[in-house]
C-alpha cells in the first residue's frame, strides 16, 4: 500500500492523481490533501479518500470544510496547514501539484521529512533548483518527475550511464497559438490562449505553453533533474504531443518515450516506480495517428524560451527572477491587465533591470523573488 499526500489536490494534477489512485484503490492510501479555495471539491475528495488531514488556503474555507467532514479528518489552513500536509502525515510520497514558487517551502518540508517527491511543480526547481536538489541528495530523498517531458526522459535514461548521453530533447506542442505568426498574436484573447490543442491543464501552465515559457521552465527543470548542461538540453516543436521527449546517446542511438497525451501515465509512473501498472489512460494506435510532425524551435518567434535559456545559463538569482516575473505577467494577462505579448515584455523588462546576485539560501531566493514580483507588477 503506497501512502500519498497531494498538494494541490483540486487542480489538474491533483484530480488526475486521485484518478490514478481510484483506479487501483487497494494499492493506494491518501494520507493528506491540500487545496486553495475549492472547498466543495476538496470535501468530496476527502469523503471519498478519507485522508488523515486536509488543508485549505484560508481559515474561512477550512471552517466551511470542517462543517461538512467527519471529526476523524483534521482540517487545517494557510501556509502552516500546507506544510503539515506536506510533512506531518505518514505519506511515502508527496505529489507537488501546486502552481508557482509558492510551492517551494512545502516541497522542502516534505524532503526534510524524508518523503519521496513526485514533482509536478516545476517552478520549485526553476526558482531554487540548487537548494532543492542539494537538500534531496543530503536527505537521500528521490525526486521523481511528473512533468510529461521529464518523465519521458527519466524513462529513456533508465539505468543508462550519464557519460553516455549526448543530449536530451524536450518536445513542445507549440501551445494554443502554434500556427499563428507573431503579427497574429496582437490582440489574441485569454480564452483563445487557454485553449490548449492537446492537454487539459490549469490556467497558468496553459498560458506558459502558449508563450513557450513552459518549455523554458522545463529546460531549467531538466538541467536540475538530470544534471545536464544547458547545451545538452534541446527543444523541438512536435504539434501532436505523442513523442513526449527523447534522449540521444553518444553512439547516436535515440530512445524516445511515446503515448497519448494523458498526464495519468507520468503521474502513475512516479507513484509506482520502478514498477509499471495498467493505467486508466488510453492506448496509443500509431496507425490511426498516421503521421507525426516535428519542426525546429524558433527563438525569435518564442522569446520567452530564449529568456529562459539565458536565465538558466546566467544562474545565481536570474532563474528566480525569470520565474517570478513570468508568474506575475501570466496573472496580469489572465486578469485582463496586459496583452498576451505583454507577458514577454514584462519578463524582458524585469530581466533587463535585474543585476544578478548570489542566492545561496532561502532568504536570498525570497528577496530576489519579491523584487521581481514588485518590478513585474509595475511594468
Ligand atoms: N496540469 C498539467 O497537466 C501539468 C501541470 N504541471 C505543473 O503542475 C503544477 C500544477 O499545475 P495544475 O494542476 O495544472 O494547476 P491547477 O491550477 O489546475 O491547480 C492548482 C492547485 O493548487 C491549489 N492551490 C492554490 N493555492 C493554494 C494554496 N495556497 N495552498 C494549497 N493549494 C493551493 C489549487 O487549489 P484550488 O483550486 O482549491 O484553489 C489547485 O488544487 C504546475 O506547476 C504546473 O506547471 C506540469 C505538467 C503538466
Ligand atoms: C503535460 C505537460 O507536461 C505540460 O507541461 C506540457 O508540457 C504542455 O505542453 P507544451 O508545453 O508542449 O505545449
Ligand atoms: Mn510538460
UniProtKB/TrEMBL annotation:
Keywords: Isomerase, Isoprene biosynthesis, Magnesium, Manganese, Metal-binding, NADP, Oxidoreductase. It catalyses: 2-C-methyl-D-erythritol 4-phosphate + NADP(+) = 1-deoxy-D-xylulose 5-phosphate + NADPH + H(+). Mn(2+) binds at residues 147, 149, 218. It is an enzyme of class 1 (oxidoreductase). SUPFAM superfamilies: 1-deoxy-D-xylulose-5-phosphate reductoisomerase, C-terminal domain (SSF69055), Glyceraldehyde-3-phosphate dehydrogenase-like, C-terminal domain (SSF55347), NAD(P)-binding Rossmann-fold domains (SSF51735). NCBIfam families: Dxr, PRK12464.1. The keyword GTP-binding does not apply. NADPH binds at residues 10-13, 36, 38, 121, 123, 202. Residues 4-129 form the 1-deoxy-D-xylulose 5-phosphate reductoisomerase N-terminal domain. GO terms for molecular function: 1-deoxy-D-xylulose-5-phosphate reductoisomerase activity; isomerase activity; manganese ion binding; NADPH binding. Residues 258-374 form the DXP reductoisomerase C-terminal domain. This is 1-deoxy-D-xylulose 5-phosphate reductoisomerase. Pathway: Isoprenoid biosynthesis; isopentenyl diphosphate biosynthesis via DXP pathway; isopentenyl diphosphate from 1-deoxy-D-xylulose 5-phosphate: step 1/6. GO terms for biological process: isopentenyl diphosphate biosynthetic process, methylerythritol 4-phosphate pathway involved in terpenoid biosynthetic process. HAMAP family: DXP_reductoisom (MF_00183). Catalyzes the NADPH-dependent rearrangement and reduction of 1-deoxy-D-xylulose-5-phosphate (DXP) to 2-C-methyl-D-erythritol 4-phosphate (MEP). Belongs to the DXR family. 1-deoxy-D-xylulose 5-phosphate binds at residues 122, 148-149, 173, 196, 209, 214-215, 218. The gene is dxr.
Amino acid at each position: 500500500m503506497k501512502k500519498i499526500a497531494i498538494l494541490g489536490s483540486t487542480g489538474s494534477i491533483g484530480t488526475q492523481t486521485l484518478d490514478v489512485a481510484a483506479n487501483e484503490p487497494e494499492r493506494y492510501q491518501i494520507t493528506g490533501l491540500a487545496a486553495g479555495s475549492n472547498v466543495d471539491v476538496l470535501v468530496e475528495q476527502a469523503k471519498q479518500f478519507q485522508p488523515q488531514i486536509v488543508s485549505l488556503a484560508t481559515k474561512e474555507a477550512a471552517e466551511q470544510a470542517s462543517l461538512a467532514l467527519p471529526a476523524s479528518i483534521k482540517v487545517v489552513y494557510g501556509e502552516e496547514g500546507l506544510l503539515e500536509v506536506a510533512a506531518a502525515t505518514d505519506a511515502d510520497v508527496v505529489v507537488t501539484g501546486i502552481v508557482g514558487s509558492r510551492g517551494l517551502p512545502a516541497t522542502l518540508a516534505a524532503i526534510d521529512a524524508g518523503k519521496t517527491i513526485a514533482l509536478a511543480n516545476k517552478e520549485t526547481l526553476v526558482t531554487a533548483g540548487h537548494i532543492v536538489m542539494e537538500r534531496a541528495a543530503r536527505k537521500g530523498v528521490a525526486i521523481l518527475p511528473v512533468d510529461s517531458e521529464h518523465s519521458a526522459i527519466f524513462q529513456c535514461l533508465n539505468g543508462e550511464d550519464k557519460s553516455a548521453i549526448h543530449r536530451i530533447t524536450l518536445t513542445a506542442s507549440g501551445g494554443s497559438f502554434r500556427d499563428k505568426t507573431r503579427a497574429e498574436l496582437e490582440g489574441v484573447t485569454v480564452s483563445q490562449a487557454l485553449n490548449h490543442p492537446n492537454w487539459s491543464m490549469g490556467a497558468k501552465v496553459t498560458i506558459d505553453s502558449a508563450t513557450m515559457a513552459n518549455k523554458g521552465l522545463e529546460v531549467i527543470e531538466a538541467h536540475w533533474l538530470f544534471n545536464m548542461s544547458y547545451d545538452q538540453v534541446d527543444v523541438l516543436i512536435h504539434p501532436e504531443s505523442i513523442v513526449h521527449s527523447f534522449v540521444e546517446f553518444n553512439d547516436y542511438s535515440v530512445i524516445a518515450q511515446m503515448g497519448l497525451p494523458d498526464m495519468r501515465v507520468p503521474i502513475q509512473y512516479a507513484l509506482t516506480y520502478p514498477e509499471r501498472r495498467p493505467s486508466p489512460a488510453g492506448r496509443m494506435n500509431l496507425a490511426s495517428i498516421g503521421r507525426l510532425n516535428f519542426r525546429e524551435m524558433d527563438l525569435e518567434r518564442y522569446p520567452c524560451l530564449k529568456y529562459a535559456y539565458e536565465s538558466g545559463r546566467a544562474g545565481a538569482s536570474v532563474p528566480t527572477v525569470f520565474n517570478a516575473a513570468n508568474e506575475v505577467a501570466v496573472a496580469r494577462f489572465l486578469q485582463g491587465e496586459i496583452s498576451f505579448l505583454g507577458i514577454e515584455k514584462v519578463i524582458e523588462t524585469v530581466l533587463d533591470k535585474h543585476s544578478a546576485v548570489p542566492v545561496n539560501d532561502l532568504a536570498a531566493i525570497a528577496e530576489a523573488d519579491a523584487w521581481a514580483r514588485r518590478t513585474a507588477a509595475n511594468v
